[in-house]
Amino acid sequence: MTTDHTATPESVRVHRIPERGHYDRETIDAILDASIVCHVATIDHDGRPLVIPNQHARVGDFVYLHGSAASRNLKRAGQGVDISLSVTLIDGLVIAHRLFNHSINYRSVVLRGIAQQVESNEEKLIALEAFTERILPGRWAEAIAPDEQELKSTIVLRLPITEASAKIRTGMPGHVDEEEDLTKLWVGVIPIEMVAGDPIPHPDIPADLAVSGSVSAWAAAHVSGSAG
Q1: What is the model's pTM?
Q2: Which parts of the chain fold into alpha helices (H)?
Q3: CATH: 3.90.1150.10, 2.30.110.10, 1.20.1250.20, 3.90.470.10. Which one for 5-176?
Q4: Quick count: other Cβ atoms within 10 Å of Cβ 166?
Q5: Alpha-carbon distance 188 to 173, whole Å?
Q6: What are all long-range contacts of 172-179, with beta carbons under 8 Å and residues at least 24 apart?
Q7: I need a surface site. Which of 22, 48, 65, 82 has the fewest CB within 10 A?
Q8: Which Pfam families does the entry mention (predicted)?
């Protein structure tokens, strides 16, 4: 665990169970790269907080967000205001003797900062390729690339990874009180992983059309017991 607090803004310091806090970029980047969905928090036009799920992709020192150019939430987020982004990966249910001690094993990241709207089509394409390749490696080369109109109808934001922290819980339930009998009640962890079923073809494509390489590879990598 990296606990270099001198490089970590107070705004993202882990205060609740601080030993679970991680501030090194290797850990933060790994969690961002492994997660598919993030949640973006902004202040709405009426001054109230609003949290929206979104897809993200990390490229170097930035996290990119994208959506419809008509998205009011993303438009506001790209106007030089503070936003916050979080991701969470659930790794297991922690089952304890006492209900109070039940928990979840997880890996999470919180980012805060000011996002900028990406204006150039060149950078938009970099971001959109990253969105595609992080989920389905190889799909960018297989499918039809975004055209001028699709790029125009897409908003892309760039959020620097400067205010960032990770929080991780692993392992079994905490200490067992002396009076708790380990022989009478099961205690432990139920692992949780994301798994894939068999790809389902669109009804209008030929029945003998082979599954694309990117699709079959992703499904094979996420069968039960192999998902990361």
Answers
A1: 0.91
A2: 25-34, 72-77, 121-135, 139-142, 148-152, 213-221
A3: 2.30.110.10
A4: 26
A5: 7
A6: 172/94, 173/94, 173/95, 173/96, 173/97, 173/101, 173/102, 173/103, 174/96, 174/101, 176/97, 177/97, 177/98
A7: 48
A8: Pyridox_ox_2
The structure tokens 């991701």 sit at: 87
Bridge-based pairing of strands 79-95 and 62-68 is unpaired
Q: Break the chain into its structural domains and give their ranges.
A: 5-176
Amino acid at 224: S
d(CA 88, CA 32) in angstroms, rounded, equals: 9
